[in-house]
Design a protein that fits this description.
Elements (H helix, E strand, L loop, with lengths): L1 E9 L3 H16 L3 E2 L2 E4 L9 E10 L3 H14 L15 E7 L14 H4 L1 H10 L12 H7 L7 E4 L13
Antiparallel strand pairs: 1-4, 1-5, 2-4, 3-4, 3-6
Helix pairs in contact: 4-5
Length: 170
Protein backbone atom coordinates (compact mmCIF):
# COMPACT_ATOMS: atom_id res chain seq x y z
CA UNK A 1 0.00 0.00 0.00
CA UNK A 2 1.31 3.42 -0.95
CA UNK A 3 0.53 6.55 1.06
CA UNK A 4 -0.62 9.22 -1.37
CA UNK A 5 -1.30 12.93 -0.93
CA UNK A 6 -3.14 14.89 -3.64
CA UNK A 7 -3.93 18.53 -4.05
CA UNK A 8 -7.41 19.37 -5.28
CA UNK A 9 -8.18 22.69 -6.90
CA UNK A 10 -11.09 24.31 -8.71
CA UNK A 11 -12.07 27.82 -9.76
CA UNK A 12 -15.13 26.91 -11.86
CA UNK A 13 -18.22 25.92 -9.84
CA UNK A 14 -15.74 25.40 -7.04
CA UNK A 15 -17.90 23.86 -4.31
CA UNK A 16 -19.70 21.50 -6.69
CA UNK A 17 -16.51 20.30 -8.40
CA UNK A 18 -14.48 19.87 -5.21
CA UNK A 19 -17.28 17.85 -3.59
CA UNK A 20 -17.84 15.77 -6.73
CA UNK A 21 -14.09 15.16 -6.98
CA UNK A 22 -14.05 13.99 -3.35
CA UNK A 23 -16.95 11.63 -4.11
CA UNK A 24 -15.03 10.15 -7.04
CA UNK A 25 -11.85 9.73 -4.97
CA UNK A 26 -13.71 8.17 -2.03
CA UNK A 27 -15.50 5.72 -4.33
CA UNK A 28 -12.14 4.54 -5.68
CA UNK A 29 -9.86 4.77 -2.65
CA UNK A 30 -12.13 4.54 0.40
CA UNK A 31 -11.53 6.66 3.45
CA UNK A 32 -9.87 10.00 2.70
CA UNK A 33 -7.94 12.18 5.10
CA UNK A 34 -9.04 15.76 4.42
CA UNK A 35 -7.38 19.09 5.05
CA UNK A 36 -9.36 22.26 5.48
CA UNK A 37 -10.71 23.86 2.32
CA UNK A 38 -9.00 27.13 1.39
CA UNK A 39 -9.78 29.98 -0.96
CA UNK A 40 -6.83 31.54 -2.75
CA UNK A 41 -6.17 33.84 -5.67
CA UNK A 42 -5.25 32.29 -9.00
CA UNK A 43 -1.48 31.83 -9.35
CA UNK A 44 0.23 32.30 -12.71
CA UNK A 45 -2.75 33.89 -14.47
CA UNK A 46 -5.62 36.29 -13.89
CA UNK A 47 -8.72 34.37 -13.01
CA UNK A 48 -11.39 33.67 -10.44
CA UNK A 49 -10.23 32.59 -6.97
CA UNK A 50 -9.62 28.89 -6.37
CA UNK A 51 -10.76 26.46 -3.74
CA UNK A 52 -7.85 24.22 -2.74
CA UNK A 53 -7.32 21.38 -0.32
CA UNK A 54 -5.20 18.27 0.17
CA UNK A 55 -6.42 14.71 0.63
CA UNK A 56 -4.53 11.63 1.74
CA UNK A 57 -5.31 7.96 1.15
CA UNK A 58 -3.64 4.61 0.61
CA UNK A 59 -3.72 2.62 -2.60
CA UNK A 60 -2.33 -0.50 -4.19
CA UNK A 61 -2.40 1.19 -7.61
CA UNK A 62 1.05 1.76 -9.11
CA UNK A 63 1.89 5.38 -9.88
CA UNK A 64 1.28 5.14 -13.63
CA UNK A 65 -2.23 3.69 -13.09
CA UNK A 66 -2.99 6.28 -10.41
CA UNK A 67 -2.09 9.14 -12.76
CA UNK A 68 -4.40 7.66 -15.43
CA UNK A 69 -7.30 7.33 -12.98
CA UNK A 70 -6.87 10.91 -11.73
CA UNK A 71 -6.75 12.25 -15.28
CA UNK A 72 -9.99 10.42 -16.09
CA UNK A 73 -11.65 11.99 -13.03
CA UNK A 74 -10.50 15.43 -14.24
CA UNK A 75 -11.88 14.77 -17.75
CA UNK A 76 -15.19 13.55 -16.29
CA UNK A 77 -15.40 16.94 -14.54
CA UNK A 78 -14.96 18.92 -17.74
CA UNK A 79 -11.21 19.40 -17.92
CA UNK A 80 -10.10 20.01 -21.49
CA UNK A 81 -7.57 17.51 -22.86
CA UNK A 82 -5.37 20.36 -24.12
CA UNK A 83 -5.84 22.68 -21.10
CA UNK A 84 -3.01 25.16 -20.57
CA UNK A 85 -1.00 24.86 -17.35
CA UNK A 86 -2.07 28.26 -15.99
CA UNK A 87 -5.77 28.47 -16.78
CA UNK A 88 -9.17 28.12 -15.11
CA UNK A 89 -9.99 24.62 -13.86
CA UNK A 90 -13.18 22.71 -13.14
CA UNK A 91 -11.09 20.17 -11.23
CA UNK A 92 -7.34 19.82 -10.87
CA UNK A 93 -5.92 16.73 -9.13
CA UNK A 94 -2.16 16.72 -8.60
CA UNK A 95 -0.20 14.02 -6.83
CA UNK A 96 2.03 15.72 -4.25
CA UNK A 97 3.61 12.67 -2.64
CA UNK A 98 3.52 8.96 -3.40
CA UNK A 99 5.31 7.42 -0.43
CA UNK A 100 8.82 8.89 -0.64
CA UNK A 101 9.18 8.39 -4.38
CA UNK A 102 11.30 10.90 -6.32
CA UNK A 103 10.74 10.94 -10.10
CA UNK A 104 9.79 13.10 -13.09
CA UNK A 105 7.56 10.62 -14.98
CA UNK A 106 4.71 9.79 -15.09
CA UNK A 107 4.38 12.64 -12.56
CA UNK A 108 6.84 15.00 -10.92
CA UNK A 109 7.32 13.70 -7.39
CA UNK A 110 7.50 15.20 -4.97
CA UNK A 111 5.50 17.96 -6.64
CA UNK A 112 7.55 21.17 -6.63
CA UNK A 113 4.49 23.23 -5.65
CA UNK A 114 4.86 21.91 -2.11
CA UNK A 115 7.85 24.21 -1.67
CA UNK A 116 6.41 27.46 -3.01
CA UNK A 117 2.59 27.49 -2.90
CA UNK A 118 0.86 28.13 0.41
CA UNK A 119 -2.37 26.62 -0.96
CA UNK A 120 -0.51 23.29 -1.19
CA UNK A 121 1.85 23.48 1.78
CA UNK A 122 -0.59 24.67 4.47
CA UNK A 123 -3.24 21.99 3.83
CA UNK A 124 -0.53 19.33 3.48
CA UNK A 125 0.92 20.45 6.82
CA UNK A 126 -2.53 20.03 8.39
CA UNK A 127 -2.84 16.35 7.49
CA UNK A 128 0.78 15.18 7.14
CA UNK A 129 2.89 17.40 9.43
CA UNK A 130 5.40 14.71 10.36
CA UNK A 131 6.09 13.35 6.89
CA UNK A 132 9.56 14.20 5.61
CA UNK A 133 9.82 15.79 2.20
CA UNK A 134 11.95 13.28 0.24
CA UNK A 135 14.14 16.00 -1.34
CA UNK A 136 14.18 18.80 1.24
CA UNK A 137 14.64 16.32 4.14
CA UNK A 138 12.48 18.47 6.42
CA UNK A 139 9.07 17.64 7.79
CA UNK A 140 6.10 19.27 6.13
CA UNK A 141 5.43 21.08 9.43
CA UNK A 142 8.98 22.50 9.43
CA UNK A 143 8.57 23.64 5.84
CA UNK A 144 5.25 25.36 6.65
CA UNK A 145 6.72 27.02 9.73
CA UNK A 146 9.58 28.45 7.63
CA UNK A 147 7.30 29.53 4.75
CA UNK A 148 6.89 33.28 4.20
CA UNK A 149 3.15 33.47 4.80
CA UNK A 150 2.97 37.11 3.71
CA UNK A 151 3.51 36.13 0.06
CA UNK A 152 0.14 34.41 -0.52
CA UNK A 153 -3.23 35.06 1.07
CA UNK A 154 -5.32 32.05 2.05
CA UNK A 155 -8.67 31.93 3.77
CA UNK A 156 -10.37 28.84 5.18
CA UNK A 157 -13.88 28.22 3.86
CA UNK A 158 -16.55 25.73 4.88
CA UNK A 159 -16.53 22.29 3.29
CA UNK A 160 -19.93 20.62 3.54
CA UNK A 161 -18.93 17.25 2.08
CA UNK A 162 -19.69 14.15 4.12
CA UNK A 163 -17.69 10.99 3.53
CA UNK A 164 -19.87 7.95 2.83
CA UNK A 165 -19.46 4.88 5.02
CA UNK A 166 -19.98 2.62 1.98
CA UNK A 167 -16.67 3.47 0.30
CA UNK A 168 -14.52 0.63 -0.98
CA UNK A 169 -10.72 0.73 -0.68
CA UNK A 170 -8.47 -0.23 -3.62
Amino acid sequence: MANVYLSIGSNIERQKNVESGLNALASLFGTLTLSSLFESDAVGFSGSPFYNMVVGFTTTKPLNKLTEVLRQIEYAHGREVDAKKYSPRTLDLDILLYDDLVCEQPAQLPRDEICFNAFVLWPLAEIAPDIKHPVEHKTIAEMWQAFDKSTQKLEKVALNWQQSQKDMTT
